[in-house]
Write a structure and sequence with these properties.
Blueprint (H helix, E strand, L loop, with lengths): L1 H27 L17 H4 L8 H16 L17 E7 L6 E15 L2 E11 L5 E12 L2 E5 L4 E6 L7 E2 L4 E2 L3 E4 L2 E11 L2 E14 L8 E8 L3 E2 L8 E2 L10 E6 L3 E4 L1 H6 L9 E2 L9 E3 L2 E4 L6 E6 L6 E6 L4 E6 L3 E5 L6 E8 L4 E7 L1
Parallel strand pairs: 8-14
Antiparallel strand pairs: 1-2, 1-15, 2-3, 2-17, 3-4, 4-5, 5-6, 7-10, 9-11, 10-11, 11-12, 12-13, 15-16, 18-19, 19-20, 20-23, 21-22, 21-24, 24-25
Length: 374
Protein backbone atom coordinates (compact mmCIF):
# COMPACT_ATOMS: atom_id res chain seq x y z
CA UNK A 1 0.00 0.00 0.00
CA UNK A 2 2.78 2.40 1.00
CA UNK A 3 4.97 1.46 -1.99
CA UNK A 4 2.15 2.22 -4.44
CA UNK A 5 1.50 5.63 -2.82
CA UNK A 6 5.20 6.59 -2.91
CA UNK A 7 5.42 5.54 -6.56
CA UNK A 8 2.45 7.68 -7.57
CA UNK A 9 3.72 10.72 -5.67
CA UNK A 10 7.19 10.32 -7.22
CA UNK A 11 5.74 10.12 -10.73
CA UNK A 12 3.67 13.25 -10.23
CA UNK A 13 6.59 15.26 -8.85
CA UNK A 14 8.82 14.08 -11.71
CA UNK A 15 6.21 15.12 -14.29
CA UNK A 16 5.88 18.58 -12.74
CA UNK A 17 9.66 19.01 -12.68
CA UNK A 18 9.88 18.20 -16.38
CA UNK A 19 7.11 20.74 -17.05
CA UNK A 20 8.96 23.44 -15.14
CA UNK A 21 12.29 22.83 -16.80
CA UNK A 22 10.75 22.86 -20.24
CA UNK A 23 8.71 26.04 -19.56
CA UNK A 24 11.65 27.97 -18.09
CA UNK A 25 13.99 27.03 -20.93
CA UNK A 26 11.35 27.85 -23.51
CA UNK A 27 10.56 31.15 -21.80
CA UNK A 28 14.13 32.38 -21.77
CA UNK A 29 14.44 31.45 -25.43
CA UNK A 30 11.48 33.83 -26.06
CA UNK A 31 9.54 31.05 -27.71
CA UNK A 32 7.37 29.83 -24.86
CA UNK A 33 4.72 27.22 -25.55
CA UNK A 34 3.42 25.19 -22.55
CA UNK A 35 4.47 21.56 -22.50
CA UNK A 36 1.44 19.29 -22.21
CA UNK A 37 1.08 15.81 -20.82
CA UNK A 38 -1.85 13.45 -21.02
CA UNK A 39 -1.42 12.50 -17.34
CA UNK A 40 -4.65 13.78 -15.88
CA UNK A 41 -3.21 15.58 -12.85
CA UNK A 42 -0.73 17.67 -14.82
CA UNK A 43 -2.64 18.87 -17.86
CA UNK A 44 -2.01 22.66 -17.83
CA UNK A 45 -4.96 24.35 -19.55
CA UNK A 46 -4.47 27.47 -21.67
CA UNK A 47 -6.70 29.57 -19.41
CA UNK A 48 -4.41 28.86 -16.45
CA UNK A 49 -0.99 29.25 -18.04
CA UNK A 50 -1.50 31.42 -21.11
CA UNK A 51 0.51 31.13 -24.31
CA UNK A 52 2.81 34.08 -23.76
CA UNK A 53 4.35 36.00 -20.93
CA UNK A 54 2.49 39.35 -20.84
CA UNK A 55 3.09 42.38 -18.64
CA UNK A 56 5.02 40.88 -15.68
CA UNK A 57 8.65 40.40 -14.75
CA UNK A 58 10.43 37.08 -15.21
CA UNK A 59 10.78 36.52 -11.46
CA UNK A 60 7.02 36.85 -10.91
CA UNK A 61 6.39 34.44 -13.76
CA UNK A 62 8.73 31.81 -12.30
CA UNK A 63 7.15 32.14 -8.83
CA UNK A 64 3.78 31.67 -10.45
CA UNK A 65 4.94 28.41 -11.96
CA UNK A 66 6.26 27.22 -8.60
CA UNK A 67 2.96 28.01 -6.86
CA UNK A 68 1.05 26.12 -9.53
CA UNK A 69 3.39 23.12 -9.04
CA UNK A 70 2.80 23.16 -5.28
CA UNK A 71 -0.95 23.43 -5.86
CA UNK A 72 -0.96 20.34 -8.06
CA UNK A 73 1.45 18.29 -5.93
CA UNK A 74 0.39 18.94 -2.32
CA UNK A 75 -2.96 17.03 -2.33
CA UNK A 76 -1.16 13.81 -3.28
CA UNK A 77 1.40 13.76 -0.47
CA UNK A 78 0.37 12.07 2.77
CA UNK A 79 1.68 14.51 5.35
CA UNK A 80 0.23 12.89 8.47
CA UNK A 81 0.98 9.23 7.61
CA UNK A 82 -2.63 8.29 8.37
CA UNK A 83 -3.89 5.35 6.33
CA UNK A 84 -6.65 2.77 6.41
CA UNK A 85 -6.18 -0.66 7.93
CA UNK A 86 -8.65 -2.27 5.53
CA UNK A 87 -10.92 -1.20 2.65
CA UNK A 88 -14.67 -0.81 3.00
CA UNK A 89 -16.40 -4.18 2.89
CA UNK A 90 -13.37 -6.18 4.05
CA UNK A 91 -14.34 -9.39 5.90
CA UNK A 92 -12.65 -11.61 8.48
CA UNK A 93 -13.98 -15.10 9.28
CA UNK A 94 -12.75 -16.61 12.56
CA UNK A 95 -13.62 -20.13 13.63
CA UNK A 96 -15.61 -20.67 16.83
CA UNK A 97 -15.54 -24.17 18.29
CA UNK A 98 -18.07 -25.04 20.97
CA UNK A 99 -16.88 -27.53 23.59
CA UNK A 100 -19.31 -30.36 23.02
CA UNK A 101 -18.89 -34.12 22.65
CA UNK A 102 -19.17 -33.75 18.86
CA UNK A 103 -17.69 -31.42 16.26
CA UNK A 104 -19.53 -28.13 16.59
CA UNK A 105 -17.94 -25.21 14.74
CA UNK A 106 -19.56 -21.89 13.96
CA UNK A 107 -17.71 -18.69 13.15
CA UNK A 108 -17.41 -15.01 13.96
CA UNK A 109 -17.72 -12.60 11.04
CA UNK A 110 -16.13 -9.14 11.19
CA UNK A 111 -16.98 -6.64 8.43
CA UNK A 112 -15.65 -3.13 7.72
CA UNK A 113 -18.90 -1.16 7.41
CA UNK A 114 -17.61 2.43 7.38
CA UNK A 115 -15.58 5.17 9.01
CA UNK A 116 -15.99 7.65 11.83
CA UNK A 117 -13.93 9.99 14.03
CA UNK A 118 -13.18 9.08 17.67
CA UNK A 119 -10.85 11.18 19.84
CA UNK A 120 -9.77 13.09 16.72
CA UNK A 121 -8.66 9.84 15.06
CA UNK A 122 -9.82 8.46 11.73
CA UNK A 123 -11.50 5.23 12.85
CA UNK A 124 -12.81 2.19 10.98
CA UNK A 125 -16.07 0.60 12.15
CA UNK A 126 -15.96 -3.19 12.28
CA UNK A 127 -19.27 -4.99 12.76
CA UNK A 128 -19.17 -8.36 14.58
CA UNK A 129 -21.71 -11.16 14.05
CA UNK A 130 -21.57 -14.60 15.68
CA UNK A 131 -22.97 -17.65 13.84
CA UNK A 132 -23.35 -20.79 15.97
CA UNK A 133 -22.79 -24.26 14.56
CA UNK A 134 -26.57 -24.80 14.37
CA UNK A 135 -27.14 -21.60 12.34
CA UNK A 136 -28.32 -19.34 15.18
CA UNK A 137 -27.16 -15.75 14.61
CA UNK A 138 -26.15 -13.10 17.18
CA UNK A 139 -25.16 -9.48 16.57
CA UNK A 140 -22.24 -8.58 18.83
CA UNK A 141 -22.00 -4.84 18.18
CA UNK A 142 -19.08 -2.93 16.68
CA UNK A 143 -15.36 -2.66 17.21
CA UNK A 144 -13.40 0.47 16.38
CA UNK A 145 -9.85 0.36 15.05
CA UNK A 146 -7.37 3.01 13.93
CA UNK A 147 -4.23 2.61 11.83
CA UNK A 148 -1.78 5.52 12.03
CA UNK A 149 1.95 5.69 11.35
CA UNK A 150 1.93 1.93 10.66
CA UNK A 151 0.59 1.23 14.17
CA UNK A 152 -2.69 -0.58 14.80
CA UNK A 153 -4.98 0.51 17.66
CA UNK A 154 -8.23 -0.82 19.12
CA UNK A 155 -10.66 1.49 20.93
CA UNK A 156 -11.51 0.10 24.39
CA UNK A 157 -14.30 2.55 25.20
CA UNK A 158 -12.06 5.21 26.73
CA UNK A 159 -8.93 5.35 24.62
CA UNK A 160 -7.10 3.66 21.77
CA UNK A 161 -4.94 0.73 22.89
CA UNK A 162 -1.92 -0.30 20.82
CA UNK A 163 -2.35 -3.76 19.28
CA UNK A 164 0.65 -3.99 16.97
CA UNK A 165 3.48 -1.85 15.52
CA UNK A 166 4.47 -2.58 11.91
CA UNK A 167 7.49 -0.26 12.13
CA UNK A 168 9.33 -2.93 14.12
CA UNK A 169 12.02 -5.20 12.71
CA UNK A 170 14.01 -8.19 13.90
CA UNK A 171 15.10 -8.04 17.58
CA UNK A 172 12.90 -5.00 18.30
CA UNK A 173 10.51 -5.04 21.28
CA UNK A 174 6.75 -4.63 20.98
CA UNK A 175 5.65 -2.46 23.88
CA UNK A 176 2.05 -3.28 24.75
CA UNK A 177 0.19 -3.92 28.00
CA UNK A 178 -0.30 -7.65 28.55
CA UNK A 179 -2.88 -9.10 30.92
CA UNK A 180 -1.35 -11.49 33.47
CA UNK A 181 -3.71 -14.00 35.08
CA UNK A 182 -3.27 -15.77 38.44
CA UNK A 183 -1.71 -18.84 36.86
CA UNK A 184 1.31 -16.77 35.73
CA UNK A 185 4.22 -15.44 37.73
CA UNK A 186 5.65 -13.16 35.04
CA UNK A 187 6.06 -12.75 31.29
CA UNK A 188 8.97 -11.69 29.11
CA UNK A 189 8.99 -8.81 26.66
CA UNK A 190 7.48 -9.47 23.22
CA UNK A 191 10.38 -9.76 20.78
CA UNK A 192 10.21 -9.53 16.99
CA UNK A 193 11.78 -12.72 15.59
CA UNK A 194 11.58 -11.85 11.90
CA UNK A 195 9.62 -10.05 9.19
CA UNK A 196 8.50 -11.12 5.74
CA UNK A 197 6.53 -9.80 2.78
CA UNK A 198 3.45 -11.51 1.35
CA UNK A 199 2.13 -10.72 -2.13
CA UNK A 200 -1.58 -11.03 -2.80
CA UNK A 201 -2.85 -9.96 -6.22
CA UNK A 202 -0.04 -7.42 -6.58
CA UNK A 203 -0.39 -5.99 -3.07
CA UNK A 204 2.64 -6.42 -0.83
CA UNK A 205 1.73 -6.88 2.84
CA UNK A 206 4.23 -6.88 5.68
CA UNK A 207 4.08 -9.84 8.05
CA UNK A 208 5.74 -9.61 11.48
CA UNK A 209 6.57 -12.69 13.59
CA UNK A 210 6.81 -12.22 17.37
CA UNK A 211 7.31 -14.37 20.47
CA UNK A 212 7.31 -14.14 24.25
CA UNK A 213 7.94 -16.43 27.23
CA UNK A 214 5.56 -16.83 30.14
CA UNK A 215 6.54 -18.15 33.54
CA UNK A 216 3.90 -19.96 35.61
CA UNK A 217 3.63 -19.78 39.37
CA UNK A 218 5.54 -22.56 41.13
CA UNK A 219 2.41 -24.34 42.34
CA UNK A 220 1.42 -24.96 38.75
CA UNK A 221 4.61 -25.52 36.74
CA UNK A 222 8.34 -24.92 36.94
CA UNK A 223 8.69 -25.01 33.16
CA UNK A 224 8.37 -21.74 31.23
CA UNK A 225 6.55 -21.84 27.89
CA UNK A 226 7.32 -19.90 24.70
CA UNK A 227 4.52 -18.63 22.48
CA UNK A 228 4.70 -17.42 18.88
CA UNK A 229 2.25 -15.33 16.91
CA UNK A 230 2.18 -13.37 13.66
CA UNK A 231 0.51 -10.13 12.54
CA UNK A 232 0.03 -9.30 8.85
CA UNK A 233 -1.12 -6.00 7.37
CA UNK A 234 -4.87 -5.98 6.63
CA UNK A 235 -5.25 -9.63 7.66
CA UNK A 236 -4.20 -9.31 11.30
CA UNK A 237 -3.53 -12.40 13.43
CA UNK A 238 -4.29 -16.06 12.72
CA UNK A 239 -5.28 -16.60 16.37
CA UNK A 240 -8.22 -14.21 16.78
CA UNK A 241 -9.46 -10.80 15.60
CA UNK A 242 -7.25 -8.00 16.99
CA UNK A 243 -5.34 -10.62 18.99
CA UNK A 244 -3.75 -9.47 22.24
CA UNK A 245 -1.45 -11.98 24.00
CA UNK A 246 -2.23 -12.84 27.62
CA UNK A 247 -0.20 -14.69 30.21
CA UNK A 248 -2.55 -17.63 30.74
CA UNK A 249 -2.83 -21.37 30.26
CA UNK A 250 -3.27 -21.80 26.52
CA UNK A 251 -6.61 -23.31 25.54
CA UNK A 252 -6.09 -25.96 22.86
CA UNK A 253 -9.71 -27.17 23.00
CA UNK A 254 -11.49 -24.12 21.64
CA UNK A 255 -10.31 -23.35 18.09
CA UNK A 256 -10.68 -19.66 17.23
CA UNK A 257 -8.20 -19.54 14.31
CA UNK A 258 -8.62 -17.44 11.19
CA UNK A 259 -10.67 -19.08 8.47
CA UNK A 260 -10.45 -16.42 5.76
CA UNK A 261 -9.82 -12.75 5.05
CA UNK A 262 -11.26 -11.18 1.93
CA UNK A 263 -11.66 -7.82 0.22
CA UNK A 264 -12.23 -6.63 -3.36
CA UNK A 265 -8.57 -5.73 -3.91
CA UNK A 266 -6.63 -8.82 -2.85
CA UNK A 267 -9.42 -11.40 -3.02
CA UNK A 268 -9.69 -14.23 -0.49
CA UNK A 269 -6.80 -15.28 1.75
CA UNK A 270 -7.30 -18.50 3.73
CA UNK A 271 -5.77 -18.98 7.17
CA UNK A 272 -3.48 -21.94 7.83
CA UNK A 273 -6.08 -23.88 9.83
CA UNK A 274 -8.88 -23.53 7.30
CA UNK A 275 -6.65 -24.11 4.27
CA UNK A 276 -5.17 -27.26 5.81
CA UNK A 277 -8.31 -28.92 7.20
CA UNK A 278 -11.10 -27.44 5.04
CA UNK A 279 -9.40 -26.48 1.79
CA UNK A 280 -12.49 -26.94 -0.38
CA UNK A 281 -15.05 -25.56 2.09
CA UNK A 282 -16.51 -22.01 1.88
CA UNK A 283 -15.41 -19.60 4.61
CA UNK A 284 -18.92 -19.47 6.13
CA UNK A 285 -19.30 -23.24 6.55
CA UNK A 286 -21.09 -24.47 9.68
CA UNK A 287 -19.92 -27.81 11.12
CA UNK A 288 -22.57 -29.77 13.04
CA UNK A 289 -21.85 -33.42 13.86
CA UNK A 290 -24.48 -33.65 16.59
CA UNK A 291 -25.73 -36.99 15.26
CA UNK A 292 -22.29 -38.60 15.55
CA UNK A 293 -21.13 -40.30 18.78
CA UNK A 294 -17.41 -40.07 19.51
CA UNK A 295 -15.27 -42.17 21.82
CA UNK A 296 -14.92 -40.43 25.17
CA UNK A 297 -11.92 -42.37 26.49
CA UNK A 298 -8.69 -40.41 26.64
CA UNK A 299 -5.25 -42.05 26.99
CA UNK A 300 -1.99 -40.23 27.62
CA UNK A 301 1.34 -41.52 28.98
CA UNK A 302 -0.24 -44.72 30.27
CA UNK A 303 -3.07 -42.78 31.99
CA UNK A 304 -6.62 -43.66 30.97
CA UNK A 305 -9.30 -41.02 31.68
CA UNK A 306 -13.01 -41.36 31.00
CA UNK A 307 -15.41 -39.88 30.23
CA UNK A 308 -13.95 -36.68 28.78
CA UNK A 309 -16.01 -34.47 28.56
CA UNK A 310 -17.40 -35.35 32.00
CA UNK A 311 -20.67 -34.38 33.70
CA UNK A 312 -20.20 -35.79 37.22
CA UNK A 313 -17.74 -38.63 37.94
CA UNK A 314 -14.30 -38.76 36.31
CA UNK A 315 -12.50 -42.11 36.29
CA UNK A 316 -8.72 -42.44 36.14
CA UNK A 317 -6.73 -45.64 35.61
CA UNK A 318 -3.03 -45.27 36.33
CA UNK A 319 -0.70 -47.55 34.36
CA UNK A 320 2.21 -45.20 34.91
CA UNK A 321 4.51 -46.47 37.67
CA UNK A 322 6.02 -43.06 38.41
CA UNK A 323 2.73 -41.22 39.09
CA UNK A 324 1.57 -41.09 42.70
CA UNK A 325 -0.31 -37.80 43.04
CA UNK A 326 -2.78 -35.72 41.01
CA UNK A 327 -3.74 -32.05 41.31
CA UNK A 328 -6.79 -30.41 39.78
CA UNK A 329 -6.51 -26.75 38.65
CA UNK A 330 -8.86 -24.31 36.98
CA UNK A 331 -7.62 -22.18 34.06
CA UNK A 332 -6.68 -19.37 36.46
CA UNK A 333 -4.14 -21.68 38.09
CA UNK A 334 -6.03 -22.12 41.34
CA UNK A 335 -5.46 -25.50 43.02
CA UNK A 336 -8.87 -27.10 43.58
CA UNK A 337 -8.04 -30.64 44.61
CA UNK A 338 -5.06 -32.83 45.49
CA UNK A 339 -5.35 -36.61 45.79
CA UNK A 340 -2.97 -39.58 45.92
CA UNK A 341 -3.38 -42.23 43.23
CA UNK A 342 -2.21 -45.82 43.01
CA UNK A 343 -3.93 -47.69 40.19
CA UNK A 344 -7.50 -46.34 40.04
CA UNK A 345 -9.29 -43.22 41.18
CA UNK A 346 -12.74 -41.68 40.79
CA UNK A 347 -13.32 -37.94 41.27
CA UNK A 348 -16.75 -36.43 41.77
CA UNK A 349 -16.90 -33.18 39.75
CA UNK A 350 -20.64 -32.68 40.10
CA UNK A 351 -20.27 -29.50 42.20
CA UNK A 352 -17.74 -27.85 39.90
CA UNK A 353 -18.91 -25.31 37.29
CA UNK A 354 -18.74 -26.15 33.59
CA UNK A 355 -15.52 -25.32 31.80
CA UNK A 356 -11.96 -26.42 31.20
CA UNK A 357 -9.75 -27.89 33.93
CA UNK A 358 -6.18 -29.12 34.11
CA UNK A 359 -5.18 -32.34 35.89
CA UNK A 360 -1.50 -32.35 36.77
CA UNK A 361 0.04 -35.79 37.30
CA UNK A 362 2.94 -35.60 39.78
CA UNK A 363 5.88 -37.99 39.53
CA UNK A 364 9.41 -38.27 38.21
CA UNK A 365 8.24 -36.80 34.89
CA UNK A 366 5.07 -34.77 35.59
CA UNK A 367 2.63 -33.95 32.80
CA UNK A 368 -0.78 -32.31 32.34
CA UNK A 369 -4.10 -33.39 30.83
CA UNK A 370 -7.02 -31.08 30.10
CA UNK A 371 -10.60 -32.15 30.75
CA UNK A 372 -13.97 -30.60 29.93
CA UNK A 373 -16.63 -30.37 32.65
CA UNK A 374 -20.11 -30.02 31.16
Amino acid sequence: MIIHSVYRAFFRILTITINLVYIIIDFFSQNYQPFRTEYQYFYFPEELMGYRFIGACKLTYILRLLLISIFFTFPFINVNCQTKWSPLGAKWYYNYQELLTYNAHGYKLFVNIGDTIINNRFTEIIQETFYRYDGEEFKRGNKYISFEDNMLYLYNGDEFELIFDFNLNKNDTLKIDMEIQEICDSVSAIIIDSTSTLNYNGFELKSVHASYIQYYNKDFSDTPEKFHYTFTERIGSERSFMYMPKCQFDDYFGNTDLRCYEDKEIGTVKGYYWNYFHEDEPCDTLINDSLTIFEDIFINNGILIYPNPVTDKLNIINNHNDINLIRLYNLQGKLLLELPILTTLSINLNNYPSGLYIIKFIGVQPFDIKIIKQ
